[in-house]
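In response to the reviewer comment on reproducibility (Comment 2.3), we provide here a single inverse folding case reported in full, input and output, so that an independent group could reproduce the run without further information from us. The structure tokens appear first.
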């Protein structure tokens, strides 16, 4: 197969626009070379219409990193991607970039690029590019949003790296920048697995709409995975939620919060009271052999099961309890996102004006 790219198709998933921006920077470079280029948001397309790419077509996939992995929406998309007979493909992940003084601090990829790369190799693709781009972190339920000046400076830096990557890939070169991080990625991979099976479900249960919510339903309409339902006439985050942060960062009323107080409180209650009481009750009927490895595993799985069920039930309850004025105040003031200094992450006007049309 010749090195010349005859067509470029980019697919992306994006919560708050970083992956979309990288897609548009790369598309701009490609169009400047008169290469026919198409860009698709995977949340907006019907996967059934995607067919095997014609020869000479370069495929790109760009997604944020969630818990040291691609979010499930991205993974499921790639796992079901049609087979190829040797098309070139590049994979990119946007990560949580930060800035300390004048140094750009990168995020962590974990298995985000490696797992899809292996799957796509088996599907017949030739992986010619693996690169992370450290755009500003959008993980607002975890830390306050970065200041505008910092965000703009990280953006300008990432634009150059994305364009440099695009030029090399479109010239037919191989770019495996991700290999630089392979050691730390391997070390962090167990956390990625833990996040996939446990962490992401807990995060999805921390969102709620405060008293500023005017029920405009923008969060529901814009959710890329259709995870927000209306329960008791208010938004309710179901287990489909990928915690992509689109709703929290773009709510025009700044009404969406993370329930930090609730999650700390409920985890203490589950672990110190519910699980302890459960084992005391079990001990009335049977004696548990504590030194048996299998029994330890069973105890641990049971603990997680109880945690999960208690979390589901309590989150529903929490949603209704938000109606009770006294409790509502406690819930509101134990949320960190409520405080003014806990900024949201939004591309600034300057950044939007610099985006390719
Ligand atoms: C729930 C969640 C988990 C995240 N996990 C990671 C991570 O493991 N490593 C990392 O570098 N960035 C992580 N981030 C940051 C995002 O990947 C990063 O800000 C990305 O650029 C967002 O892209 P988007 O705007 O296209 O959604 C996480 C963000 C969220 C919301």
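Designed residues, in position order:
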């Amino acid at each position: 197969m010749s090195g010349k790219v005859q067509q470029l198709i980019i697919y992306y998933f994006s919560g708050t626009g970083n992956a979309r921006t990288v897609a548009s920077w790369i598309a701009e470079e490609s169009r400047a070379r008169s290469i026919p280029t198409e860009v698709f948001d995977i949340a907006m397309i019907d996967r059934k219409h995607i067919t095997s790419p014609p020869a000479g077509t370069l495929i790109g996939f760009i997604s944020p990193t969630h818990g040291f992995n691609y979010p499930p929406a991205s993974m499921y998309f790639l796992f079901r991607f049609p087979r190829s007979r040797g098309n070139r493909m590049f994979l990119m992940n946007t990560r949580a970039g930060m800035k300390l003084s004048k140094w750009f601090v990168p995020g962590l990829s974990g298995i985000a690029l490696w797992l899809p790369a292996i799957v796509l190799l088996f599907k017949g693709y030739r992986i010619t590019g693996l690169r992370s781009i450290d755009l500003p972190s959008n993980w607002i339920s975890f830390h306050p949003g970065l200041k505008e000046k910092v965000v703009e400076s990280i953006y300008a830096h990432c634009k150059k790296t994305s364009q440099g990557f695009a030029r090399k890939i479109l010239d037919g070169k191989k770019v495996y920048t991700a290999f630089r991080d392979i050691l730390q990625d391997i070390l962090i991979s167990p956390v990625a697995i833990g996040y996939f099976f446990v962490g992401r479900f807990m995060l999805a249960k921390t969102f709620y709409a405060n008293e500023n919510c005017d029920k405009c339903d923008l969060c529901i309409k814009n959710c890329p995975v259709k995870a927000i339902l209306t329960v008791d006439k208010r938004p309710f985050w179901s287990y489909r939620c990928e915690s992509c942060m689109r709703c929290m960062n773009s709510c025009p009323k700044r009404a969406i919060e993370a329930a930090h107080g609730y999650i700390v409180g409920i985890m203490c209650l589950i672990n110190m009271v519910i699980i302890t009481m459960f084992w005391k009750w079990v001990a009335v009927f049977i004696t548990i052999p504590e030194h048996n490895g299998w029994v330890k595993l069973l105890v641990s799985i049971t603990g997680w099961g109880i945690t999960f069920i208690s979390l589901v039930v309590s989150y529903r309850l929490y949603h209704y309890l938000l109606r009770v004025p006294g409790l509502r105040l406690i819930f509101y003031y134990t949320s960190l996102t409520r405080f003014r200094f806990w900024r949201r992450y939004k591309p600034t006007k300057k950044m939007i004006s610099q985006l390719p049309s």
